[in-house]
């Protein structure tokens, strides 16, 4: 079973470029988690009858949003955070209410949960760090709650490079958005809760990135950041065959990431 995650930075743009269907045909993901759909389902027609599509779109059109495409019927699909977790954290700031931006969608299957997340960006001036200090623990609490029931796979754009080998120029970016102590410590908390960064588990080396700036040929020169992850409960490690970054897949400033499991859901 192949589970993929991809921040498409606009699913309609990827489709217009003629890149979505070839990706699905070539990679054949069993479950595809998408971030930054920037679309409502009535704004795009997709010829993918083999997939059941689940959307969590932002109230504001053309912004944020997540989706799950799956070949396997889920037991249940839930959008957003549980109300009891939302109530514990301040998830709205001057930029907006993150609970209305379609940032989380979670599907339950027989053997595990799959959740996808589009984490708020801290902003160049770090003005959304206070939000991140609410958002990160709120989402982690949700994933930890779920893993008490069954193993969890959660993936998406976390908007943070965890360690120095997760970006091409760490020294120049210390303290900047995506590489602040606060954001990196929040990632540490995920590890402390028993979740595994699957790509790093299989690949200890640097030079592997998932996002590149549009400027100065950054992608061609591989001057990038690894900010897209597939995290799993430790109990799933024995059945994870591989974890990959698909940097050859074009269409977005991010590329897909994936894991392959040796079971059916």
Query: Rg from C-alpha positions?
Result: 17 Å
How many runs of DSSP E, i.e. beta strands? 16
> What is the CATH architecture annotation?
4-Layer Sandwich
Strand content: 25-35%
| H/E element order | EHHEEEEHEEEEHEHHEHEEEEE
Helical run tally = 7
CATH class wording: Alpha Beta
Main sheet: strands, sense, barrel: 6 strands, mixed
The strand order across the widest sheet is 3-4-2-1-16-15
Mean pLDDT: 97
Poorly predicted regions: none
Coarse structural class: alpha+beta
Provide the domain count.
Answer: 1
Give the termini distance in whole angstroms.
Answer: 8 Å
Write down the CATH topology: Deoxyribonuclease I, Chain A
Describe the secondary-structure layout.
Layout: E1 2-7, H1 11-16, H2 20-27, E2 31-35, E3 52-56, E4 66-70, E5 76-79, H3 83-86, E6 92-93, E7 96-97, E8 104-108, E9 113-118, H4 129-147, E10 152-157, H5 170-173, H6 181-192, E11 195-197, H7 198-202, E12 211-212, E13 224-225, E14 228-233, E15 240-245, E16 257-261
Parallel strand pairs: 1-2, 9-10
Antiparallel strand pairs: 1-16, 2-4, 3-4, 5-8, 6-7, 8-9, 10-14, 11-14, 12-13, 15-16
Helix pairs in contact: 4-6
